[in-house]
Input
Amino acid sequence: MKKILYYLQVVFYLFAGVNHFRNPGFYLGMIPPYLPEHETINLAAGVAEVLAGGLLFFSSTRKWGAYAIIALLVAFIPAHVYFIQIGSCITDGICVPQWVGWLRLLLIHPLLIAWAWWCRK
Output
């Protein structure tokens, strides 16, 4: 079961990272306006997620991949807060009830951090 959870996390972050390139509009509207270079931030996040997912794949680098994922998830917190501030709705993008934004920030995000922490071993 543990191997399945490792590989599931690898696939999750590889897919999420590649999605930054395939569907940048999904992410650009979530980047707070006080940050510069939204396109660069989006591309960097995609590259970082792919690299972190790749590091998770190998047992010799799994710990560093998990730490990288945790750092990314912490770095993404301002985007989640901004998403809530704008009513969890992006013009011409994702639009969900505001409680979903809160659920992402307060429950799903910490669970993803805990999952990465668990996978570091």
